[in-house]
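pinging the channel bc i need a second pair of eyes. not urgent but kinda urgent?? the chain im working w is below, pasted from the shared doc
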Amino acid sequence: MTSNEALTLSAVYRAVSIRAMALRQMSIDVERGSEVIATPAIIRTPDPLANLSLGPFIEQTAVSLNLAGNAYWRIRRDSAGSVNSLEVLNPHEVTIKTTSAGRVVGYSHRGADLDTTDIQHLSKLRVFGSPYGLGPVEAARSELRGALDVRDYSSAWFRDSGLPAGGYWSTEQKLPPVGPGSPSEIRESLHAAMAEGGAPVVGSGIELKPFNLSPADAQWIEAQQWNTTTIARLFGVPLTLMVAALDGNSMTYANIGQELASWVKFGLADDLREIEDAFTAVLPRGQRARFNVESLLRLDTQSRYAAHAAGIAAGWLLPSEVRKIENLPEVDGIDGRFPLAPHPAPAAPTDKKAA
């Protein structure tokens, strides 16, 4: 089972594209201490040599992680030693070099040896005894192969089963194996009559019985639905995003919002943290990269604006921060137009003994 084979399954393609799309649509903030600073060029355009901006760069990384279980960034530096370019390598073209004790000492890409300082290695599940991350495709080869078999069998049912599309001729009479009245002679006479455009004439006791195969049975609908559920579970994607649902499970707008928030925390967090840590490793010391998940979790316009207004009124959110969350341009002095709400002074302690 290769990555390309897995992608021929519509459920796998959908799951991988959903994870990549979710990561791609989020911006990345860079912090120094508790302060958000201007986005460095290496974040805005990680691969300037290929003119690859942040979105496509994140997409390539996410696809590599979720199909191969590993992603590799080739690091290039300027004369001063600062990182000025990152390139996503084909994970299937990278080999990790280790010592007998399992310590990573280098990498090889298309025959070229690279030092550990030249590669930023991102991985999925880390398993003891292997320097490679374990991705969904590698971990569930048998299940994905079974899903491929079901799909291929159902698509080839009418073409390769050897059964006529409409039905079959049946009789309770005992037919001679050869000669007049044999099955082969009857078949030839029927084909000849049909080729001439006339109605076939058959002997007594022979009748046409159609195949009563429903579209659901012919396409193995239940098996394919089960495979979709299994693949969604494997890649950690909610069924609602896979355009599938369990029987008897009704989703409301509030349910979907809660499910999406849970997915970001527990289903997408591994890719989020892996990419954040990789960017942080190539930034100058003291700076940290963080995904802005607000753009992914934002609800309808009215709910968002009400939440922003409540935050500003409570004094823990600034208008300038709201504009950044909404991807709006900065406005000089906007925070001064909306002074923070005054907080009541704490009550003086009372002397219970005196009371």
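so Residues 10-24 form the longest helix (15 residues). and The two ends are 80 Å apart (CA to CA). — does that match what u expected or am i reading it wrong
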